[in-house]
Amino acid sequence: MAIVKNLGRTLSQLLQSPGCGCQTSIVPVRCIGVSPRQVTSDASFHSVSFSETDHPRVLITEYKLIVPCAFLFRKRFGRNNVILSDIRKPPDDVFYNGPFIYSDILDYKNLCEIVVNNRITWLFHYSALLSAVGEANVPLARAVNITGLHNILDIAAEHSLRLFVPSTIGAFGPTSPRNPAPDLCIQRPRTIYGVSKVHAELMGEYYHYRYGLDFRCLRYPGIISADSQPGGGTTDYAVQIFHDAIKNGKFQCNLKSDTRLPMMYIDDCLKATLDVMEAPAASLSMRTYNISAMSFSPEELVQEVKKHIPELQVTYTVDAVRQAIADSWPMNFDDSNARRDWGWKHDFDLSELVTTMFNILGSDSRVAQIN
Ligand SMILES: NC(=O)c1ccc[n+]([C@@H]2O[C@H](COP(=O)([O-])OP(=O)(O)OC[C@H]3O[C@@H](n4cnc5c(N)ncnc54)[C@H](O)[C@@H]3O)[C@@H](O)[C@H]2O)c1
Prior knowledge:
The chain is of the alpha/beta class. It contains 15 helices and twelve strands. It has a single domain (about 55-370), classed as NAD(P)-binding Rossmann-like Domain (Rossmann fold). The protein has helices at about 1-15, 40-45, 65-75, 90-95, 110-115, 130-135, 140-160, 190-210, 235-250, 265-280, 300-305, 320-325, 335-340, 350-360, 365-370, and strands at about 60, 80-85, 100, 120-125, 160-170, 215-220, 220-225, 250-255, 260-265, 290, 295, 315. Helix 7 packs parallel to helix 8 and helix 9 (about 235-250) runs parallel beside helix 11. The radius of gyration is 21 Å and the shape is globular. The termini are far apart. It comes from Gopherus evgoodei (Goodes thornscrub tortoise). Catalyzes the NAD(+)-dependent oxidation of L-threonine to 2-amino-3-ketobutyrate, mediating L-threonine catabolism.
């Protein structure tokens, strides 16, 4: 009976806590121990400074999509205050631009070592298996996207980190409103990717209300970047078209020509990510926001690309798995809450996006330009 009473009291305290910025002093779950495999930071990656600084010390899990983000953060926070990590070997431009470290998000102790040894204060958690790749290997997607996220949440809560996790249009499903999808609505995705992202949104918010974790999450549209190769997502056709158009003047699209999806140029994505991380906690009326910039179909993108490469030949060979995924996703996002709460505003529309992609891919890569 006493247990039931205590449980009731705890629950009622929990449910009464304020919507945002509520904190309890209870810290979750796993104890922090010193790993027998602890090594000095210098042994793990190169060129790390330990000088005192007011800047956040940032760890980013994965290096692909977010490479330009890391480079911008390094300009802002200092080169050695931003550490990239992945389980894959980075290319030279990533490795020599600043600290890079091997990190498997399924290895909890290793993650702890990295956070402690480098006094990390902000964690950007990008590692994930995307939609099409996830459907091809559900057990791995479940491990990386769900078990990996649990490791990240525990470490972030235990070490009082500010945590950013990207969500996606894939977190919505066929029963969600599609044009536009608001921040709060039915979310019943039918891919392991989508299910894991809804799980991430809910667990992050739960840790925020339960343990005071400073969790911040944006639902990205399809992100278009000249710096990263397509990685197995359903919106990747909109990146592939630029590479194929420049390389051989031909493009085979794996979605139907009229499949409309929300998209965003990488610079807008980076700006939104930094803005929401720097926003005062008091301005955040929620912890997971939609962000939106444009919405287009393959045919509309093709027409815009043809303004630069008129001879482009396009064929449509629909991939049934990707098409079913795309048909279950929103065509548009309602991002009015982000615009109101922390002043989100996009800069790139379709025509600017296409011109910028050709400017970058047609000349040196932007990584070289930033360096
Ligand atoms: N690309 C987009 O358009 C888009 C849109 C919305 C959200 N996002 C989100 O952005 C993030 C990154 O997307 P992306 O396009 O770069 O994906 P990607 O598939 O290109 O890269 C995923 C990265 O995760 C790494 N990884 C896999 N297993 C790992 C492990 N056990 N430990 C550490 N790293 C591991 C891989 O090595 C890879 O570098 C994802 O969380 C995704 O949901 C991307």
